[in-house]
Amino acid sequence: MSITLDLGEAVIPHGAYSTLLASPATQAETTITAIKNYILRTGLQVGDALPTESQLCSDLGVSRSSVREAVRTLVALDIVEVRHGHGMFVGKVSMRPMVESLVFRGLLNPGDDHRGLRDIVEVRITLDKALAEPVTQTWKNRQDTEIDQIVAQMDVHAQKGELFTEQDRRFHIRLLEPLDNHLFLHLTEAFWAVHTLTVPLLGAPRPEDMLSAARAHRTMLQAARAGDTQAYREAITDHYAPLLAALT
């Protein structure tokens, strides 16, 4: 007996329904999941080699076009890295795709009083303040010549009216490195990258803002070493105040 499925104006024979379910898009999505599961199942780590395209087709039972489309998507997500002439490898699985999406989102409505950029900065402030307690517990009475040098370099640059973007990044990364949860570190680095990439849209910062930012970083470190969570949160507020003012 012939069975048909009535989908509004289209009447599809029952035998053709399975073909629709196995559309190229669905196959590619299935292949993406299969490749990710293969990486997890075989215990591959960042930088490890993946099977060749032909091997993946055979092992996963999918077409070459599905593998190629899946790999393109996984490369964009930084899960797979293609090295031409060498093969495919497990990617860095970084926060880069999220960073790029957030940066683009922040740029979408430049005439909207920088609403998208303010949202990003406010999320970063919330994360920094949420980490205040573990940071102050970890850094209480902790000595570290590297972070001291970073803060000193910030002071020098600020006094000269120079930006200290790299020192800013290193400061926040170094502050979170001793924490047990490294996801905090990766998220902070991602949000730092987002707002650092978008800040140039505001024009050159005022010299007094750079001096204020340098002082705020020093105060954050002092509060952390004193184990003073409240003072640390207040220093975070001072740190971001000039940026929020510019975005407003």
Describe the structure.
It contains twelve helices and four strands. A hairpin with a 3-residue loop joins strand 3 and strand 4. By secondary structure, it is mainly alpha-helical. The N terminus is likely disordered. It folds into two domains: 87 residues, Orthogonal Bundle (Arc Repressor Mutant, subunit A), CATH 1.10.10.10; 152 residues, GntR ligand-binding domain-like (Four Helix Bundle (Hemerythrin (Met), subunit A)). The strands form two sheets. A two-stranded antiparallel sheet has the order 1-2. A two-stranded antiparallel sheet has the order 3-4.
User: Level of helix content?
Assistant: 55-70%
CATH topology tier name of the largest domain: Four Helix Bundle (Hemerythrin (Met), subunit A)
The strand count comes to 4
**Second rung of CATH, namely the architecture of the largest domain:** Up-down Bundle
Give structural attributes:
6% strand, elongated, 2 domains, 4 strands, 248 residues, two-stranded antiparallel sheet, 12 helices, Arc Repressor Mutant, subunit A, mainly alpha
